[in-house]
Amino acid sequence: MNKRILAALLAFLTLTGSAASADVLTDGQRDFDWELGTWHTDVRVLADPLSETEDQWLTFSGTSVVRPLLDRRANVVELKVSGSAGRIEGLNMRLYEPQAKRWSLTFVNIRDGLLTPSVYGGFHDGVGEFYGDDQLGGRPIKVRFLVRRQGADRATFEQAFSPDGGATWETNWIAVDRRY
Length: 180
Description:
Strand content: over 45%
Shape: globular
Strand order of the largest sheet: 1-2-3-4-5-7-8-9-10-11
Number of strands: 11
Order of helices and strands: HEEEEEEEEEEE
Largest sheet: 10 strands, antiparallel, barrel
């Protein structure tokens, strides 16, 4: 092959490969890459959300391990925490949807073996915002899940429920993760 043609072909491949990589970086597919690895997590859970009872927060501590799947187009979070109220073990499955340029997050409760309805969204200005619909005590609610990265080695995760279509929110889950 002619050296000029080979050089042109290599330059083209380099440019198109770089463009494809840049597209992946800007479309949201790698938004959770920073979280891969093992974290110490402290979790606070509201004992009886959206109730008229006085707020009682339960505390748990343990680990959160985030593993990539499918060339980082998906990942799974394995959560194992315990406290005076018992243990929480679960998985959070995250899947990137390239057509919509958004993530779905689905929690799997190991205790009852059920999937929660997914929340959907992505990162804007450094904050991950994910929304979905669920039920609590037989009534429909909105769910909001926020992810805030606070440097390379710290992040907070917050879940809130809304009984009124998103007009008001009650936070019921706060996790603070610190990298080991």
